[in-house]
Design goal:
By secondary structure, the chain is α+β, with helices and mostly antiparallel strands. The chain is about 30% helix and about 35% strand. It contains 3 helices and 8 strands, in the order H-H-H-E-E-E-E-E-E-E-E. It has helices at about 15-35, 40-65, 70-75; strands at about 75-85, 90-100, 105-110, 110-120, 125-130, 135-140, 145-150, 160-164. The radius of gyration is 26 Å and the shape is elongated.
C-alpha cells in the first residue's frame, strides 16, 4: 500500500532526543516486565500489564512533551523600531520600548518618555501609560519572534519593532 504522510511540523532536536530516550526506556521496562511474568499466573500477568500501561502513559506524558513560549514571554525584552501615528506610515519616528517581566514597560520616542504597565488580555496587548487610559494593541510576531507589529484600535497607531 502506497500512502504518503505529511509532517506538519518538524520536532526540535532536543525533542527528538527526548522522545528517543522515552522509547528506549519504555522498551527496557517492557523487557523487564516480560521476563518477570514468565512464571506468573494470569492475575499477576494482568497486574503487570496494568503496571506496564501506567509506566508507558507516564513516560509519554512526562518525557515526550515540550511547552511553547507564551505570548507574554515573547514580549519581554528590549525592542527598537519605528512608531507612526493614526495609520500615517510615511511619518515614522524612531522608538525603543522595553517590556519587563513584572508587567511594566518603558518607551522612548523623540522628546517623549513613556512608562506604565502592560498585560495580554483577550489576545491583545493592553498598554497603560502612567497617567493615561489603557490602549489595546493587536500584535503580530514574525521572524522567529524577533519582529513585532503592534496596531492600536481605533486610532490605528503602529509600532514596527525588532527585538534587541
Amino acid at each position: 500500500m502506497n500512502s504518503k504522510v505529511k509532517t506538519l511540523r518538524e520536532p526540535h532536536e532536543a525533542s527528538k532526543a527526548r522522545i528517543g530516550r522515552v522509547t528506549e526506556n519504555m522498551l527496557l521496562y517492557h523487557e523487564v516486565l516480560y521476563v518477570h511474568t514468565l512464571g506468573c499466573d494470569n492475575r499477576m500477568k494482568q497486574q503487570v500489564k496494568l503496571l506496564w500501561l501506567i509506566i508507558m502513559v507516564s513516560c509519554v506524558i512526562f518525557g515526550g512533551c515540550t511547552t511553547s513560549k507564551s505570548d507574554k514571554d515573547k514580549f519581554i525584552g528590549s525592542w527598537e523600531g519605528t512608531y507612526s501615528w493614526a495609520g500615517n506610515l510615511t511619518r515614522r519616528v524612531p522608538t525603543t520600548i522595553t517590556f519587563f517581566s513584572d508587567g511594566t514597560y518603558s518607551a522612548t520616542l523623540p522628546l517623549i518618555r513613556d512608562n506604565g504597565t502592560w498585560d495580554i488580555t483577550n489576545g491583545a496587548l493592553m498598554k497603560t501609560a502612567d497617567s493615561n487610559p489603557a490602549v489595546a494593541y493587536a500584535y503580530s510576531f514574525s521572524n522567529n519572534n524577533q519582529s513585532l507589529i503592534l496596531t492600536s484600535s481605533p486610532k490605528n497607531d503602529q509600532w514596527n519593532l525588532t527585538k534587541q
